[in-house]
Amino acid sequence: GILVAGDGTVTRGIDGIARYHDAQFAEFLKGTTLQVAVVDVRLLGPDLAMMQTTGGILWKGQTAFAAGNKGIQTFVVARENGVWRVKHFQNTRIRAD
User: Fold this and answer.
1) How many CA atoms lie within 13 A of 58 on its CB side?
2) What is the pTM of this model?
3) Beta-ladder partners of 70
4) Which secondary structure element, helix H or strand E, spans residue 25, and what is its range?
């Protein structure tokens, strides 16, 4: 898969994506909560779909997103041997008004 993070970091492959997330949650994101809502799911074929979500990180003690800390995420997923797997993920921050 390919991960495009909200800061523009691009990571490829399961091992690289796992290392990226391990590092983020060990330090910067430690103690946070991820809150997302599904906005849209579109089947592009019998074994291919695109999903859009919105949400982001809530810092410890927060109940609402801080300004500029909410994003819109796009997933491309493929079904392989009956299991849906993320092939591409992009997170883009929503500009604070």
Assistant:
1) 11
2) 0.80
3) 56
4) helix 14-26
Distances (CA, A) of 78 to 36, 57, 81, 82, 91: 21, 26, 10, 9, 18
Backbone angles phi, psi at 40, to 5 degrees: -160, 145
Strands, DSSP E only, in 1-97? 2-4, 10-12, 33-45, 48-58, 70-80, 83-93
> Could you tell me which residues come within 8 angstroms of residue 20 by beta carbon, excluding any fewer than 6 positions away?
3, 5, 9, 11
pLDDT in tens, the chain (97 residues): 898 988 888 999 999 999 998 998 899 888 888 899 999 999 999 999 999 999 988 988 899 888 778 899 999 999 999 999 999 999 998 876 5
